[in-house]
């Protein structure tokens, strides 16, 4: 068609650019009657009537929790600045930075954005006791609603880059920034590939928000490079079927981890898969992660993670990651950490490969075989103190958060989770395995406490039994329950028969301990609220604001607020 390849590319590029410009001119020609105003928090957003792609009512929980977390992170940053010991540590870590961390800022399509980024503004340290200044990037913004709320509701925002790859979305962002009267010197719309933007802006942002439609795997490596030392990453993943084991080979390709259908803790497994992948990406750059809060919400997971630079701490990541062995019969599980450490003098640690496997070929509980998943993150996924601060902040400012009731309950459940106890047992699942009546949560929790162990719920399930008790203790308690509540003779080939064939080594005490009833009737806190009217993801947005086809949804990643 054209003899020169370069000429063909230039013609195609000009053709596509012309289409984009015609779309933008059409959008500009629309009158005020063609728009509707949506208010959320302090923001007011203009949307074309009938275009529901860029706004999802269910995501108000996501935006509310993000604002609350960033505010509390801002307070923690200020407290660390006031602590001389923390300041000295930060300065030592900043001296370690390589010369590549001062790379020039990216070029944007707007000359205004380009000149702003070339200034490479450092974060100005607050000299007052008010608020720590923040540099924020929202990588996949769509309408700009989230960023506009960030600027209006989070004090002390020094610079906020509102980015999207779609030209129509960027034009909408620009209009909404003007509509809300935000200063253009601080709130800057950007039309760029977010990965390219982050890679050219290393160590430039205190907060990076990545909220894609689908997997966030493509953005993890650039994000851990672009975030400042001690900065906050806010990561969303909506590819829950993949993370919960529907397509294990896809999970391996995206996150470097094998996902299995692991009832009953598949949502916690999803969180730990992504955290493990994020930590491995950080380790490549001599950085490591510290999760502040990790939540499974509706149809997605949302993680708030700090990233620090330290070659010494990075070495400890092998102890925080491992494999999960889960029985295919009774679904008992065992953990195999990838590494182990021991003191080697002068306060140093020596690391060795982990030894295993932690289980024999057949399950000691029911005799069935195991399946292996991972590697996954096996360290804490919550910072209980931080989660409580966010919860208390939401409770004190209910009028600022439309989803405050749900947030308060969810954060209460997350703050009460037992640390250092990855995964959990499900009370209904235990009863189903043994074909018996289901004990109440208070009865089973009391029995575990009477046996000398700790136990809690999980924010992912109201019937979760998260505990540091060995699996042998849990099944001994269930054997005692069946003895008190007899069942019909099970099939000899069933896990139930093998489990009940063993005599319990302890006598379970099911007398209820005061405070073990965690129901909302007793506590007055609804930790597990039913899904809202608008629950579920919207269609994927594509160029021009319409919804994408299935083939397009499978082949690309964009944001859908």
Automatic annotation (TrEMBL):
SUPFAM superfamilies: S-adenosyl-L-methionine-dependent methyltransferases (SSF53335). Residues 115-130 have a biased composition (Basic and acidic residues). One of its GO terms (biological process) is tRNA N2-guanine methylation. Residues 81-130, 521-561 are annotated as: Disordered. GO terms for cellular component: nucleus. InterPro entries: SAM-dependent_MTases_sf, Trm1, tRNA_met_Trm1_C. Residues 98-112 have a biased composition (Low complexity). The keyword Cell division does not apply. It catalyses: guanosine(26) in tRNA + 2 S-adenosyl-L-methionine = N(2)-dimethylguanosine(26) in tRNA + 2 S-adenosyl-L-homocysteine + 2 H(+). One of its GO terms (molecular function) is tRNA binding. It is an enzyme of class 2 (transferase). It holds the Pfam family TRM. Keywords: Methyltransferase, RNA-binding, S-adenosyl-L-methionine, Transferase, tRNA processing, tRNA-binding. Its EC number is 2.1.1.216. It comes from the Eukaryota. Belongs to the class I-like SAM-binding methyltransferase superfamily. Trm1 family. PANTHER family: N 2 ,N 2 -DIMETHYLGUANOSINE TRNA METHYLTRANSFERASE, TRNA (GUANINE(26)-N(2))-DIMETHYLTRANSFERASE. This is tRNA (guanine(26)-N(2))-dimethyltransferase. It comes from Hirondellea gigas.
């Amino acid at each position: 068609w054209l003899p020169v390849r370069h000429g063909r590319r230039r013609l195609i590029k000009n053709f596509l650019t012309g289409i984009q410009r015609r779309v933008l001119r059409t959008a500009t020609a629309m009158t005020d009657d063609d728009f509707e105003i949506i208010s959320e928090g302090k923001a007011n957003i203009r949307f074309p009537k009938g275009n529901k792609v860029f706004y999802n009512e269910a995501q108000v929980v996501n935006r509310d929790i993000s604002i609350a977390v960033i505010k509390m992170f801002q307070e923690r940053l200020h407290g660390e600045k006031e602590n001389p010991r923390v300041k000295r540590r930060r300065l030592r870590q900043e001296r370690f930075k390589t010369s590549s961390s001062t790379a020039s800022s990216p070029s944007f399509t707007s000359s205004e954005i380009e000149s702003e980024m070339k200034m490479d503004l450092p974060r100005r340290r607050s000299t007052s006791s008010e608020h720590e200044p923040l540099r924020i990037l929202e990588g996949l913004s769509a309408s700009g609603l989230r960023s506009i709320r960030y600027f209006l509701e989070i004090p002390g925002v020094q610079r906020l880059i509102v980015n999207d790859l779609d030209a129509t979305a960027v034009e909408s962002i620009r209009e909404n920034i003007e509509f809300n009267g935000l200063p253009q010197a601080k709130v800057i719309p950007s039309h760029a590939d977010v990965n390219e933007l982050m890679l050219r802006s290393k160590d430039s942002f205190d907060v990076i928000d990545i909220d894609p439609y689908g997997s966030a795997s493509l953005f993890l490596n650039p994000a851990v490079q672009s975030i400042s030392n001690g900065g906050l990453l806010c990561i969303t993943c909506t590819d829950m079927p993949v993370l919960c084991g529907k397509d294990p080979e896809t999970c391996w390709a995206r996150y470097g981890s094998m996902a299995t259908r692991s009832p009953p803790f598949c949502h916690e497994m999803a969180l730990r898969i992504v955290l493990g992948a994020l930590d491995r990406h950080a380790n490549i750059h001599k950085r490591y992660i510290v999760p502040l809060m990790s939540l499974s919400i509706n149809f997605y997971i949302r993680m708030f993670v700090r990233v620090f630079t330290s070659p010494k701490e990075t070495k400890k990541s092998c102890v925080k990651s491992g494999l999960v062995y889960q029985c295919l019969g009774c679904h008992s599980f065992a953990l195999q950490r990838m590494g182990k450490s021991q003191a080697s003098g002068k306060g140093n640690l020596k690391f060795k490969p982990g030894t295993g496997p932690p289980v024999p070929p057949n399950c000691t509980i029911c005799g069935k075989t195991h399946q292996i998943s991972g590697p996954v993150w096996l360290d804490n996924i919550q910072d209980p103190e931080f989660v409580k601060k966010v919860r208390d902040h939401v409770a004190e400012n209910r009028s600022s958060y439309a989803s405050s009731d749900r947030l308060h309950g969810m954060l209460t459940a997350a703050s009460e989770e037992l640390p250092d106890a990855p995964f959990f047992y499900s009370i209904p699942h235990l009863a189903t395995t043994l074909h018996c009546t289901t004990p109440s949560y208070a009865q089973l929790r009391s029995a575990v406490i009477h046996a000398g162990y700790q136990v809690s719920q999980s924010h992912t399930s109201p019937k979760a039994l998260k505990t540091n008790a060995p699996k042998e203790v849990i099944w001994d308690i269930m054997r005692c329950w069946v003895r008190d509540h007899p069942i019909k003779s099970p099939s000899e080939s069933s896990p139930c028969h093998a489990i009940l064939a063993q005599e319990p080594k302890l006598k379970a005490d099911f007398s209820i301990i005061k405070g073990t009833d965690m129901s909302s009737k007793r506590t007055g806190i609804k930790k597990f609220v039913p899904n809202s009217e608008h629950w579920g993801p919207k269609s994927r947005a594509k160029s021009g604001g319409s919804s994408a086809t299935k083939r397009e949804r499978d082949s690309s990643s964009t944001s859908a607020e």
